[in-house]
Amino acid sequence: MALDAELRTKTGTGASKKARNEGKIPVSLYGGDLEATSLLVNRREFEALLKKEGSNAVFDVNYDGKTQKVILKNFEKAALADQFYSVDLAAISADQKLQVEIPLVLVNAETIKEGIVELVMNTVEVETAPDTIPNSFEIDVTGMEIGDSKSIADLEVPAGVEVLVESEETIVSVSAPSEEPEETDSEEAAEPEVIGEEQEDSESEE
Description:
The chain is built from 3 helices and 13 strands. The chain is mainly beta. It has 2 domains: 2-93, CATH 2.40.240.10; 99-175, RNA Polymerase Alpha Subunit, Chain A, domain 2 (Beta Complex), CATH 2.170.120. A hairpin with a 2-residue loop joins β2 (24-31) and β3 (34-42).
């Protein structure tokens, strides 16, 4: 997959705001022997690529008559608006080994009727070539019961991908729900003693 970009000739807060208003995202391209370069990419095209390829997206960037293979390193979004502020891309080669974090995704968690399914790790670090980076690792918890767990060894890892976590490390477990304390019936609760009430009653009888 490829993304077209243009050289960014103007920098600064004002220029960045203007670019975003025009539907473009400021991009920083760097890495290896490549001179750091400022680019602009179309926001909708980038969003489509991110949706399809995921947070570890590897793709080609076409700019200034050149094509560079890159990996998505980071991006910033506005806190209150669904708008990208900036994107960082790292230049890579096709045969380069990369260390990346792969998300873990639970599958069929709704089938567990008793117990609480807990994902112990959210991501797992792997080393692999750019073209074999998995989008995620799916963990099927169908049939698991209270006390069961799964470890790194249970992951289905594609050829060419090395997991950099010990195989016995737990990634998901099913535990018993915690017992909630019994609620006291408000009607059965003892009424507070009113100081002086008995004294007032005896005085009224006199």
